[in-house]
Amino acid sequence: MPIAEEEKLLPLTQRWPRTSKFLLSGCAATVAELATFPLDLTKTRLQMQGEAALARLGDGAVDSAPYRGMVRTALGIVQEEGFLKLWQGVTPAIYRHVVYSGGRMVTYEHLREVVFGKSEDKHYPLWKSVIGGMMAGVIGQFLANPTDLVKVQMQMEGKRRLEGKPLRFRGVHHAFAKILAEGGIRGLWAGWIPNIQRAALVNMGDLTTYDTVKHYLVLNTPLEDNISTHGLSSLCSGLVASILGTPADVIKSRIMNQPRDKQGRGLLYKSSADCLIQAVQGEGFLSLYKGFLPSWLRMTPWSMVFWLTYEKIREMSGVSPF
After folding, report:
1. What is the CB neighbour count within 10 angstroms for residue 3?
2. Distance of CA 6 to the CA centre of its chain
3. Angstrom distance (rounded) from CA 73 to CA 39
4. Where are the Solcar repeats?
5. What values do phi and psi take at 266, rounded to 5?
6. For residue 219, is it within any domain?
7. What are phi and psi of 260, to 5 degrees?
8. What angle do CA 54, 183, 186 make, to 5 degrees?
9. Cα(165)–Cα(87) distance, rounded to whole angstroms?
């Protein structure tokens, strides 16, 4: 039988392995995002509270922030905006994670298997995993930056309504169109530098930790490549990713949400370094960990749901384990 005919008989996952992995990771990310999104919204609102730089614009939000703490913030959203507002911005978040998760997973596996090369005994040095995780995060996040920008800005719409400010967007597609009209293509990549910095750190924590812990457990303990190993590995990856990524996440959220002039330039911060300095000087070092608790409480179950779902649908689709 000709080679072309044999290829046609192969399952789709073997004929288009990277496309399949992209789609499978997108499906797993969608499940995880829907399950944990309220914590992401709460985290974003917390990160914006007490933003010292707003005082330069005479914004009263600094003194009138209605919430303090994770629980009161979440309850306040439910009481004042409605229960379903806990999922405000979930549509662009799903768009973002399909692109982001698909991009990072395909990139990481390509680097691991082809560029750096895992040894025959499945040993993969930590330093290679760190570099691979960071590079995968950078590429995945750069591709997904427009959707992340829309998600962050839509998450703050409920707060604007409470402060008596006009809403900026009528929906997801209007948000994309408005940002594009006001800032051009470059406007869709506002905040991309702190965004990829955060993604590099988060994926160094998530991908590197999961891959390293999982294969350590499989190779050095009685545990097999099953749901127990996946669960333990994802718990570790969620914690490390939250610790490494929260400061960059605070900076990213503030830069993306800041008001802009007619040229699309930020009115509060010149760069991610400027935002970092202003936050520490105006609010203290711990301001970089605003929203850490909901971030950790979200990252851990998100990581668990994602990895358990991803490993399972890979198995069901005939794709080798991660």
Report:
1. 7
2. 40
3. 10
4. 20-114, 124-216, 225-316
5. -65, 140
6. yes
7. -130, 155
8. 105
9. 21
* Cβ(197)–Cβ(272) below 8 Å: yes
More confident residue, 146 or 165: 146
How far is it, in rounded angstroms, from Cα 265 to Cα 258? 10
Q: 228 lies in a domain? A: yes
Count of structural domains, the chain: 1
Contact 266, 258 (CB under 8 A): yes
Residue 195 lies in a domain: yes
* Residue count (the chain): 322
Q: Which sign, positive or negative, has the C-alpha torsion 269, 246, 306, 153?
A: negative
Query: Does residue 10 surpass a pLDDT of 90?
Result: no
> How many Å apart are CA 190 and CA 65, to the nearest integer?
25
The residue ranking higher by pLDDT, 57 or 71, is: 71
What tens digit of pLDDT does each residue of 189-245 get?
Answer: 887 887 898 889 889 999 999 999 998 999 889 999 999 999 999 999 999 998 888
Round to whole Å and give the CA distance between 289 and 245.
9
pLDDT at position 320 over 90: no
Sorted by sequence, the CB contacts under 8 Å of residue 304 that are 6+ apart come out as 231, 234, 235, 238
* 261 contacts 216 by C-beta, under 8 angstroms: no
Give the tens place of pLDDT for each residue, 13-24. 667 788 888 999
What per-residue confidence (pLDDT) applies to 56? 65
pTM attached to this predicted model: 0.76
* Highest-pLDDT range among 61-65, 242-246, 285-289, 309-313: 309-313
> What is the Cα–Cα distance from 39 to 197, expressed in whole angstroms?
22
Instruction: Indicate the SS3 state at residue 6.
Output: helix
Q: Does residue 33 fall inside a structural domain?
A: no
Q: Return the amino acid letter for 252.
A: K
Looking at residue 58, its pLDDT comes to: 60
Helix/strand/coil percent split, the chain, to 5: 75, 0, 20
Please check whether residue 266 is in contact with residue 260, taking contact to mean a CB–CB distance below 8 angstroms: yes
> What is the average pLDDT across 171-190?
85
Range of the domain at 262: 191-284
Longest dimension (CA), the chain: 75
